[in-house]
Amino acid sequence: MEQVSEQTPLITNDAVVLGILVLILAFVFKTSSSKHPFFKKFYSVVPSVLMCYLLPSLLNSFGVISGEQSGLYHVASRYLLPASLVLFTVSLDLKEIWKLRHKAGVMFITGTFGILIGGPLAILIVSSFAPDIVGGAGPNAVWRGLATIAGSWIGGGANQLAMFEVFQPDPNLFSAMIAVDVIVGNIWLALLLFGAGKAEKLDRFFKADSTAVNELQEKVEKYRLSIMRIPTMPDTMMVIGVGLGITGISHFFADIIAPWIETNAPYLEQFSLTSGFFWLVVIATTLGVLLSFTKARELEGVGASRIGSVFLYLLVATIGMQMDITAIVSQPGLFLIGFIWVIIHLILLVIVGRLIRAPFFFLAVGSEANIGGAASAPIIASAFHPALAPVGVLLAIFGYAIGTYAAYLCGILMQMVAP
Questions:
Q1: pLDDT band at 2 (very low <50, low <70, confident <90, very high)
Q2: Where in the chain are the domains?
């Protein structure tokens, strides 16, 4: 994620920023486990994971730190994210995960379709009362910039850049669209994190059959309890060694595979196969799954998923510091399109979710696998349970694969309805 901002923040040293983020996480987790009546009531309304996200975003919005100028998000997404995926998948019960495929797939496809038709419908709605907002000609045509958001919201950064090359929006327009992409996407992530804390109530609304999800969680917990022991120093070093070691191996092969495909099969760019980050996530997840068939599976007993959660929450904090809520004031019209777009996406998910009685988990992960991609889909999934993080990753990988095609179609439809 990146954002457009030129103001120098109060704190520019990443070592200081990292210290602040870790202190925020420590504060949130300490207070969320407190028995003090105020904190018990507060966290019954606001999920702790949402606070881990919102507090850094406030520091960014008020110029204390800068998500754009900091290198922490890049470090967290390239090093800590793959390590956490390995540590979450190392104790994976693939057979149980497979049982989730039907409803997870339907909600993911619904989310994709919601983005595909949401863009053109948002343009139609806004053009009915403010045609200037969605107008423009040539490279400045707003629909061209919106097509790049479709690439990001169905696939990821690689798909977004592909749409930039295809539709060639003006660079200044593209910069504004990046702000819309980041801020609307991050506000949506915050709402989903809030919903994750209210999953039981929402499941009652959907009249959901959450048997498969609950069975997976129970089975993971039962297995974890059966192998749990007090970790020694060698145990902890083994956990970190497996997580970061596999991350290093994943980087090694991603650095070979992505450039090779770009040189020898450039047409595969449409599937995001020339993206190093795509291969990083795929290889780390695959190796983690393979390790789940070995004795490495027992690392869960000495805290593999707990350490994976630490890495993931650091990523949550660095994603939070990307959001500058004050940027909405500068381009309110474009943000209005973005919010209407996401609302259409949500309405479709709610309708289909109720029809198939899908748990809120599938709605949230199916949506974020589109809008957030591989960096934030596992965050949403693990907010329900660490064992579910791989579901978010697998769906996000599908998003990379279809992102360019679906976004291109969305761009053509937006061109057809634009005034």
A1: very low
A2: 72-417
